[in-house]
Design brief:
Elements lengths: L5 H25 L13 E3 L5 E3 H6 L17 H7 L6 E2 L8 E2 L3 H12 L2 E3 L3 E9 L10 E8 L2 E12 L2 E10 L3 H4 L2 E9 L2 E7 L2 E2 L4 H6 L4 E4 H7 L6 E12 L2
Parallel strand pairs: 5-7, 9-12
Antiparallel strand pairs: 1-2, 3-4, 6-14, 7-8, 8-9, 9-13, 10-11, 10-14
Amino acid sequence: MAEVDSCSNTGASRGESEKHQIVLNNVYKLLECPECNNIMSSPIYQCPNGHTICSICKFQVQSLCPICCVDMGSIRCLALEKVAEPLNIPYDCPYPGSKCLVREGISALVEHLKDDHDVGIYDTYKFNHRRVQLYSNEMEKASGISVAVFNCYGVQFCYHLEDFLVGMTPCYIAFLRFMGEDIEAKRFNYVLRLVGDDRVLQWQGVPRSLRDTYDQVRDDLDGLVIPRNLAFLFSNGNGKELALEIYGRIWIEH
């Protein structure tokens, strides 16, 4: 019977583990953005000299490479994006009630929302949304969800507006979620303003990321919450409908 040298095997296993950790550390170092030091994920941009940068910082440096000061243009570093892809944790689809799971990154998630859920994609950091409901005896039972994606600063934000109940009180809630990781979400701020009939109701905060589920953000009331009886005071309707005008703006917090 052959004897197994357990000490030798343990040493070999430890050596392989150390090599794996060294490789992983080198990969993370390769994916580190030179401007913000966060780990980059798709889309990753590079200048003509091969220096890379994350999409948020590319916007902040106005497409001027922070290493060699040349114009970065819109060159994507597809090789690094492929390296980063297996390190990305899949995203749950942000569409309420959806059970979809997207593994290919934010760009694929945006396309999924557009193609499979008919969500509008808008290139803007300022927006307004008009929500209309007809007056009826069934209005108290009515429910609805609106979803849109805003593309700005090289990243995306998912906007939600929903009818829901706080206890027994019918309300609306509007909020944004950053389509990415928590650490990047904290670099942004946004404001939502309900405007109508010479009145303004405003909410301002930091967007939650997609790592927080839709239900978590809604149940935390982390957004512009409008009780329905208050909404009537803001209505721009014609007497036959409840019409709400919500204005929003997103900016980078320096």
